[in-house]
Every structure is written in C-alpha cells, then in structure tokens.
Amino acid sequence: MDSKNKCYNRIVDKAKKLKLFKYNCLEFSSLDSNKQSYIKQYISKKDMPVLVFWGNYNEWTLLCMDVVITYYNNKIYRVNLSIAKRDFTPCLDRQYIKQEVITIDKLQKIISNDGKPLSNLNIEQEKAYKLKTKAKWLYAKNTQDFIWMPSNIEVYGVWSILIMIYNLDVCK
Hints:
It is built from 6 helices and 8 strands. It has helices spanning 3-17, 33-40, 81-84, 104-111, 123-134, 152-167; strands at 25-27, 49-56, 59-64, 67-72, 75-80, 88-91, 137-140, 145-148.
C-alpha cells in the first residue's frame, strides 16, 4: 500500500473512531455524483479529497490530505495544511479577534469543572464551555483562514484529524 492510501485510510479510520460518520461527515467517494461534480469545480486536480462535511450546497467543507477547503456563503476558504501546521483554534464565528490559540489539552483542562455545577464556572471556563458546545469554525492562525463545520462535534473531530495529519509522516 502506498503512502497516499495509508494516509487516506488513517484519516477515514480516525473519523470512524471519532464517530463522525454519525453526523454530517461522508467519504468523498461515497457522495452522489451531483455533489461530487459540484465540489470538484472548487478544487484543483492535485487535491486528494477524503472527507466531506456537508451542510448544503452553500455550506460544506472538504478535507483533503494536504488542504482543507470550506465553501460558506459564496466564499472559499482554502487552508494549506503544510503552512497551517498545528495552529488551529475553535471559534464561534468568523470574527476572530486576537484570541489565543487554545490547545486541546488546555480546553479539556479548563472545561473539566471537577463535578461542580456549570453555574460555578469562572469566566475562562464559561468561554471554554461555550467554545466546546457551540463552535462551528476552526481558525488557522498561520494562514488566517477559517474552516466551517456543521456542528461543534465535527469541529473537534476535524481538529483531532488535522493534528494527526500534521504528525504523520505517511501523509507528507
């Protein structure tokens, strides 16, 4: 098996492990031909599509092995993963304003409230809780672009996959 097939399989396996296929995630190859043709007009021949997160024809994200392409309200966001590296942070909308990049570990640490009721959250915990439950965007700090997802679950799943892709030699 060549490295591109290994990378493809690792991405799909990770999506299965994260149960993303229960939501709006599909393998690109399993999309109906109309949707595939529609998406193909926005990608280059060298892009290798793996997963698509489908909202509708005006809201979708395509995860390829080296790029993520979001189409949202007639605008294309193209994030080159070799440039973006690991510097992603969830955000509630595209109005990203000098927010620090939050790591997965930091978010998990902030949000674990030691069993206290949510009303006892401090401001940092409230912000993290809102990001965890409402985020629909990932901001790529190095490229200053955005990646849209249909739900917060997919935001964190894709974030995890992007980190895996960055760490895998097989995807490079």
